[in-house]
Amino acid sequence: MKAAVMHEFGGPEVLTYEELADPQPRKDQVLVGVRACALNHLDLWVRKGLPGVNLPHILGSDISGEIVEVGEYVHGLKVGQRVVLAPLHFCGQCEQCAAGRQNLCREFTVIGNGVDGGNCELIAARPMSVFPIPDALDFVQAASVPLVFLTAFHMLTGRASVRPGQTVLVLGANSGVGIAAIQMAKLFGATVIATAGDERKAERAKELGADFVVNHYRQKIGDEVRKITNKAGVDIVIEHVGPATWGESVKSLKPGGVLVTCGATTGPKVEIDLRFLFSRQLSFLGSYMGTLGELHEVLKLVFSGKLMPVVDKVFPLSEVRAAHEYLEKSQMFGKVVLEV
Ligand SMILES: [Zn+2]
C-alpha cells in the first residue's frame, strides 16, 4: 500500500510518500480501505517529536473508508460498508475500559499518536471502533468529525456538564474543537460567546450559531465578556489555546465557573492565582478525547444533521507536506483533509 511515513521528527519535509507492505488484520479485526483522513494539530506535534512515538511512524487520527476484509470472528460488519473509525487506542480489558472510560485506560493513546494512523491506504481495526456512516455523509465530511467532535462533546458534557441557559465562552472559533463546541453548546441550549482572529472567521462563527464573537487580537476577551454578560461572566470556558489566552479565560469566568481545557497550542505553562481559584470557587478541568460511548452519542447528532462537520480544504495524500504547511499557517476555518 501507499503511505505517508515519517522516518524522523522535524518539519513537513520528513513526511515521505512511499510503498509499504499491506497490514495483515487479525481474525477479530476488519481491514478498512482508507478514503479520507483529516489532519489535527496533534499531527503537527507528533511530527515535530513527542515522547512515546516510535519511528518509522504513520500519522492520522480521523479515518473514514470502506471495509475491504472482515475477520473470521467479526459479526455485524460486511465488506463494502462505508465507515468512520474511532480515533481511540485502548486495551479493552482493564477496569477503566470495562467501565466505558477508555480515555482513562493506562494504554490509552490517540490513533496516529502512540500507534500508527490512517495516512495510508489500508488500516486494521477492531469492530468496536468501526462506525457505519449514512449515505448523505461523504468520506471527507465523515473524516472531519471524530476527534474534534468527540473532544468538544467530552469537554462540554462529560467534564463541564453544560445545562440549558448557561453561557459558554469558546476560544478559537475557527479551530476544529471551536467549530464543534459552538454548535454543541447551542444545541444544549447555552448562549455562546466565541473568539475569532478576523472578520471572516467571526462571520463563520455566527453562521454556526455563536451569539457573540470577540476579536481575540483587537479586543481584551475578559473585558468584552464582562460587557456582553452585564459583568456576570460565563459559566464555562472551552480552552485549548494555553498561555496566550489563559489569563483572559480565567477573568471571563463567573464565580463558581468551570474552565475546561484540552490543549496547549501556545505552550504548556500557565499561572494560576490561588486567591482567585479559592475565593471565586473556580474549577479548572482537564479533558482528553472522550469515550466510545460518547462517540456513539455525538455521531448520532452528526448523522441526524444536528451537528455539521466543516471542511476547509482537501489535499491528496501524496501532497501531505503541503497539507501540513497549510495547517501550520492557521488560516483555515474547518478541517484540512487528506483524500486517499
Ligand atoms: Zn484499558
Structure notes:
There is one protein chain. With 340 residues, this protein is of the alpha/beta class. 27% of the residues lie in helices and 26% in strands. The chain has helices spanning 41-48, 95-98, 139-143, 146-159, 176-187, 199-207, 221-228, 246-251, 274-279, 292-303, 320-328; strands at 2-6, 15-19, 30-38, 62-70, 82-85, 88-89, 109-110, 122-125, 130-132, 167-170, 191-196, 212-215, 234-239, 253-261, 283-286, 311-316, 335-339. Strands 3, 4, 5, 8, 9, 16 and 17 form a 7-stranded mixed beta sheet that branches. β16, α11 (320-328) and β17 form a beta-alpha-beta unit. The longest helix has 14 residues, at 146-159. Zinc ion binds next to α2.
